[in-house]
Every structure is written in C-alpha cells, then in structure tokens.
Specification:
Blueprint (H helix, E strand, L loop, with lengths): L1 E10 L6 E3 L1 H11 L4 E6 L5 E6 L3 H14 L8 H5 L4 H10 L2 E7 L2 E2 L6 E6 L6 E10 L1
Antiparallel strand pairs: 1-8, 2-7, 3-5, 3-8, 4-7, 5-6
Length: 139
C-alpha cells in the first residue's frame, strides 16, 4: 500500500460558484501512478465544500436555490457578533455539505457514475483562491 499527497489550486468567482474539478482530480490519480485505491479531496477552511453533482445548467441554478432555502443569507447569524462579517450563512452551509469527499478508483480511473462530477462549491461571500489537499491511498 502507498500513500500519495498532492494539491489542486483553484480560483472561484464568489458565493455559490461551483467549479468542476473532476478532470483535475483524475489527473492527480494518473500522475500518482497508483492503479487501485481511494482519493480524498479536502478543503482546509470553513466556507468551502466538495460535492458530487451532475454539473449541468439546471442543477447549477437549482443547487444555490436549495442552499438559500436551507440557510438563507438574510437570516440573522450569531457568527456575525463574533467577527462582524457577513458570512454566517456561508459557515452553516459549509458545515452541512462537508469539507471532503472520498472517491474510489480502479485501473487509474475514477469510479464515478455517468452523470456524476466532482465539484468545489465556494460558499464564502467573496472570490477566493483555494488549495485543495489531495490524499491517495492504494496500490
């Protein structure tokens, strides 16, 4: 068994920007030389998330609307009292979605469904540069 660590750098355009990182993740698997195993993608930080979704125009509109229903931006968040900022809803959304995703791969190919892509979701209220931490375990 081997463990490989790497990073993926991305830039986002702000709140609820979804960035399809599937090809970047697949490239990390290929570069690693590991044939079979799992890859974990992790975002250090409290206002971003890694998800799988069918990355198509309808869901790219539906997903932010769902987030607004679950953790509305205009609600009062006690987090604002701590830091006097405007991203309490961002933290709540990120906590619900989670900071990481683990995907199996076989023969150096991610084992995703036909319509399933890996995406980073920016939940902060501004554009950001993000460094995703990648860990591969396999053989």
């Amino acid at each position: 068994m081997v463990v490989v660590k790497d990073t993926i750098n991305i830039s986002t355009s702000g709140e609820v920007d979804m960035v399809d990182i599937t090809s970047k993740v697949q490239n990390v698997v290929l570069k690693s030389g590991v044939k079979n195993g799992i890859i974990n993608i992790f975002i250090p930080g409290a206002t971003g998330s890694i998800i799988t979704i069918e990355y198509e125009p309808g869901l790219k509109k539906d997903f932010p609307l769902m987030l607004e229903r679950v953790a509305p931006k205009k609600e009062y968040y006690y987090h604002h009292e701590t830091w006097h900022d405007d991203n309490g809803h961002s933290h709540v959304r990120a906590s619900l979605l989670g900071p990481s995703l683990t995907v199996p791969f076989s023969n150096s190919s991610l084992t995703l469904g036909t319509w399933q892509q890996i995406c980073f979701v920016e939940l902060d209220t501004r554009n950001r540069s993000r460094k995703l931490i990648i860990t591969i375990i396999g053989e």
